[in-house]
Specification:
Helix content: over 70%
Shape: globular
Radius of gyration: 24 Å
CATH superfamily of the largest domain: MetI-like
Structural class: mainly alpha
Number of strands: 0
Largest sheet: none
Number of domains: 2
Length: about 325
């Protein structure tokens, strides 16, 4: 087991390097000019050339990547092209906002998945199962920004219960902070729950067919105790492994929603970088999101290796 853990840790570094290279190339080959975005469309060729030389954009892409990566590992993501401020502190300030949104959305997704998935699994191939499976399919196919717009219309504009957007730091007003994060958390969590509901359903169906469940049923244990005390606990192991991976994707899925709800997180910073062709901002924000996804996947992989001995034996 220790050998497998070490292998995963060693392969993590090359994965990060490859991901950063792909991200760097993708950002730099996107159509559009960073110099024209910063200086304006009427900038003279001399001004454009001076800007590109000042920021190293006239050098080969390989050299640009090596310099950027060398600074990034030390936490220096460069200066913004638009306002000439350090990008690192801005990313650091916005990261907790995105993590809070992803965390709250994760709780929504897991709560829906465990309750609805367990109910569908228990009533396998019966009416509740058919209804919940259809709902899960609907949840998974709805764009989160469309659901966000619907929630804003219903709960903000029509009922007036919650704000349409904006962000209040929890250190200033916890209640206002939570009220502002409810709708985006629901929009993000509901869409993510579609996959998790089906996984929870499948996992519980598999556990319910095990021999120890038949033994418990023969002893006259009630259906509620059978599911809660025996089946659900065993079904949660594979479910939690997949749901932890889903958390990483939730962080990557906040880009549009943060813009819809005017939340100053990493996702909205990505959009600012794309619109302004601000490469340092875009690279820093996208790389942080990528690192969160990769680290989450690594932790889940290590956890699965330690929890499930069969996985270790299968790889030896």
């Amino acid at each position: 087991m220790i050998r497998l853990i070490l292998i995963r840790l060693l392969t993590f570094v090359p994965t990060v390097i490859v991901a950063s290279m792909v991200l760097f190339v993708a950002v730099n080959v996107v159509p559009g000019s960073a110099s024209k975005a910063a200086l304006g469309i009427y900038a003279t060729p001399q001004a454009v050339k001076r800007f590109e030389h000042q920021h190293g954009l006239d050098r080969p892409l390989v050299i640009q990547y090596v310099e950027w990566a060398g600074k990034a590992v030390r936490g220096n993501f460069g200066m913004s092209f638009q306002n000439a401020v350090a990008v690192g502190p801005e990313v650091k300030k916005r990261l907790p906002v995105t993590l809070q949104l992803a965390g709250m959305a994760f709780l929504v997704a897991v709560g829906l998945a465990i309750s609805l998935g367990a109910l569908a699994g228990f009533y396998h191939q019966r009416l509740p199962d058919v209804c919940i499976t259809s709902i899960a399919t609907l949840f998974g196919s709805v764009p989160n920004f469309w659901l966000a717009t619907l929630l804003i219309y219903l709960f903000s504009l029509h009922l007036g219960w919650l704000p349409t957007g904006g962000y209040v730091p929890y250190s200033e007003d916890l209640v206002a902070n939570l009220r502002g994060m409810i709708l985006p958390s629901i929009a993000l969590g509901v869409v993510s729950s579609g996959l998790l509901i089906r996984i929870m359903r499948t996992s519980l169906i598999e556990v319910m067919s095990a021999h120890f469940i038949e033994t418990a049923q023969s002893k006259g244990i009630s259906n509620f105790n059978l599911v809660i005390r025996h089946a659900l606990r065993n079904a949660l192991i594979p479910f939690l492994t997949v749901s932890a991976v889903e958390f990483g994707f939730l962080v990557g899925g906040v880009v549009i929603l943060e813009d819809v709800f005017r939340i100053p997180g990493i996702g909205s910073l990505v959009l600012v970088g794309i619109i302004n062709r601000d490469y340092p901002v875009l690279l820093a924000a996208a790389m942080v999101i990528t690192m969160i996804v990769l680290v989450t996947n690594l932790l889940v992989d290590l956890l699965a290796t330690m929890i499930d001995p069969r996985q270790v034996r299968a790889r030896n």
